Amino acid sequence: MNIALDAMGGDHAPEAIVAGAVEAARIYGVTVSLVGQPNVIEAELKKHDTKGLNLPIVPASQVIAMDEKPAAAVRAKPDSSMVVGCKMVKRNEAQAFVSAGNTGGVLAAGILHVGRIKGILRPALIGPFPTLRGVCLILDIGANADVRPEHIQQFAIMGSIYAREVIGIEKPRVRILSNGEEAGKGNQLVIESYKLLEQTPSILFEGNIESKEIPTGLADVVVTDGFTGNIFVKTAETTARLMTQVITEEIKKSPLAMLGALLARRSLQRVRERMDDSHYGGAVLLGLSSLVIVAHGRSNALAIRHAIRVAKQAIEQDVLTKIQRGIAALESQKAAVPDESISI
Amino acid sequence: MNIALDAMGGDHAPEAIVAGAVEAARIYGVTVSLVGQPNVIEAELKKHDTKGLNLPIVPASQVIAMDEKPAAAVRAKPDSSMVVGCKMVKRNEAQAFVSAGNTGGVLAAGILHVGRIKGILRPALIGPFPTLRGVCLILDIGANADVRPEHIQQFAIMGSIYAREVIGIEKPRVRILSNGEEAGKGNQLVIESYKLLEQTPSILFEGNIESKEIPTGLADVVVTDGFTGNIFVKTAETTARLMTQVITEEIKKSPLAMLGALLARRSLQRVRERMDDSHYGGAVLLGLSSLVIVAHGRSNALAIRHAIRVAKQAIEQDVLTKIQRGIAALESQKAAVPDESISI
């Protein structure tokens, strides 16, 4: 199994990226192809013991920065690590490509150099969100800042297939993120998407969901535009970190509380582990015809290691074939019984 | 001081609303006029000791439910508690109106029966968000699900005036909520609003802000559309509650940790108090020509009590005159030096 990794992308590239690759190659026994500037990568690799690990370097002379305009950068830099990585999965030289770089850049490189699954208008980032009952899949969490109702409809279809085929939920319950649970609440996009989702027979649509209901496990799949989804995910991460900080501050004010925290330290460690998003690793860019995983821009080595784990599992579970098969089944239904309500 | 309260609005109306009014009248020494169906309110008042408290009943025969279409409901129900409450502040029979009812309904009733400050296109809900350095004001947190860039510009102007005049921040730093900190990141609304905000001389605009930077105190005022703002605020609330639940679960698994939690209980209580949004009470509906405060739909008695406290403080600080004066100053500047970049 060969997983291509964008060694140049991310807030902490290349240090954290290469460090994560070394960990992943050791722990998961996979080949991690480091895509980027060879001298930079070699210098990082020297900091680690890489004996016996499969960490080939794939040269790419250009780098797409975090703040570059995605589409323009991808066109202007054909030898960037992002473009080279996408071309590797397209030619099946690697079974997945992982990048913590500019999300818009990965999306643009993916659309241009990997290509979409037939019928898919917009690939979307799907990420798991922990609930008290298990996990809720949210898409789009950042690929498309502006979308139309027909895109949301496709997100719902792709998310349902992913939940069924990858997570094993027989009838995934789908809801749309809104500012109120009642039908009719929401912005124009939500209100129009709601109508379209109601008329989509291939999904089990159960209406609006407020963010407060996501942790209760009310839905298996939550659809939203990539702007709102991104704000949702980042706000949840931030609040969890803020709360940890507030707890630490308050405990430090009292010696008795500090003793208490010492006694409870293993429990508090488990809380940190449950809330630490480094373990989620990465989000699959669903709708491309090869596997592309987007890791958080601020990924540390642990997050990169877990993003590679997500890629490995997606390869083992054959996520791509399952999604393609699910979309193809919908397409053939459409061909047999023309159904205007499905606009894919 | 007379504060009108919508006794019929909110998930826990009328019980929690009347209970909160009784507490507020006792603790803050204000008159709270209970607007709604007299028999219902009287039945609730009987559950409390109201001796010596000023809690007059103002009859309103109709109720606007949480799930009604706002504008239509306000037109169809001229004797609803929301409409009657708004008319009271318009006629200055009360100095503020507080409602935990359907936010869209309060907004519609406010626009129709209170009226906007001259020049204001859309009133916006402004709410305080705790940061590690103090407080950040966010608007709109729920009044307008769909807005245009010129509305965002007005939110920035109103928010700046509020921060300066009410909170006492001399030069409030304004940012726009986005999915990336770099200029150019965001959805179409953010990108277009950004350009307009850059050209607004009456505010100190410092660019985009990601939700993760709000708790660090990077901005004094954060502007956003009411849909995104609402998702942001609710997600933060929800994550804080979820984390409390996770901590409790993990601690209960170990007797040693339970002892630890017992020793740290006063510190944990302070954490709960710092994170409990019941203490924020309500958000001011900025841009109306009388004071209207919107409390959370799920307000309990404590939240209602604090919403009345917010109203009392807003009256004492003369928030309304300050905002009107600030807007008027901008208007007169506009008249003196025509500036197309300010579209109010």
TrEMBL record, chains A, B:
Localization of this protein: Cytoplasm
Reactions listed under catalytic activity: a fatty acyl-[ACP] + phosphate = an acyl phosphate + holo-[ACP]
Broad class of enzyme this protein falls into: transferase
Keyword Amino-acid biosynthesis part of the UniProt annotation: no
EC code: 2.3.1.274
Major location category of this protein: cytoplasm
GO molecular function terms listed in the Swiss-Prot or TrEMBL record: phosphate:acyl-[acyl carrier protein] acyltransferase activity
Annotated Gene3D superfamilies: Isopropylmalate Dehydrogenase (3.40.718.10)
GO biological process: one example: phospholipid biosynthetic process
Biological pathway: Lipid metabolism; phospholipid metabolism
Pfam families listed in its UniProt record: FA_synthesis
Keyword tags: Acyltransferase, Cytoplasm, Lipid biosynthesis, Lipid metabolism, Phospholipid biosynthesis, Phospholipid metabolism, Transferase
GO CC terms of this entry: cytoplasm
HAMAP family hit by this protein: PlsX
Described purpose of this protein according to its UniProt entry: Catalyzes the reversible formation of acyl-phosphate (acyl-PO(4)) from acyl-[acyl-carrier-protein] (acyl-ACP). This enzyme utilizes acyl-ACP as fatty acyl donor, but not acyl-CoA.
Quaternary structure and interacting proteins, as annotated: Homodimer. Probably interacts with PlsY.
Family as reported in the entry's similarity comment: Belongs to the PlsX family.
Protein known as: Phosphate acyltransferase
